[in-house]
Amino acid sequence: MLKLDTETMEFSVWKLPPHLEQSNSYVVGETMNGTLWIVYCSGWSIDVLRYGVDDGGEERWIFVGMIEYDEGANPLANNDTLHVVTMKDGFVYLATSEMILSLCLETMELEKLFPRSFRAHHFQPYIMAWPPSLVGNYGSFAAMQDGPNAP
């Protein structure tokens, strides 16, 4: 893997774990603090690795955890598989043919976002900020919801 440090504008080469050669669905990305992560799927299992220093003081890919997607809770047709789509700001986005999911790397919680209503093979989630008019507007809007005589 080729990595560009945007502060020094220098490239470095990092070796990926050998077992990723068998996985056809993985993503490598950084979280907001710059830590490198790998998330990959093997069947209905989602495995997470982080690049860091192990107990012996050696820098390497460290296994963080594994999560099983419960396909029984939402039965899938046609031997569906789980695919990693992308990683953005500490969240990993995954897809089946029926559902879009997100995995928070901080809490390791897997959440179903919405049913997949499109059939594109490749897509990227579009993340945008809420308009200022919808963020933290607890003034007159909250008063209108509670009613004029609310405590």
Automatic annotation (TrEMBL):
Residues 2-133 form the F-box protein AT5G49610-like beta-propeller domain. It holds the Pfam family Beta-prop_AT5G49610-like. It comes from the Eukaryota. InterPro entries: AT5G49610-like_b-prop (IPR056594). This is F-box protein AT5G49610-like beta-propeller domain-containing protein. It comes from Eleusine coracana subsp. coracana. The lineage of its organism: Eukaryota, Viridiplantae, Streptophyta, Embryophyta, Tracheophyta.
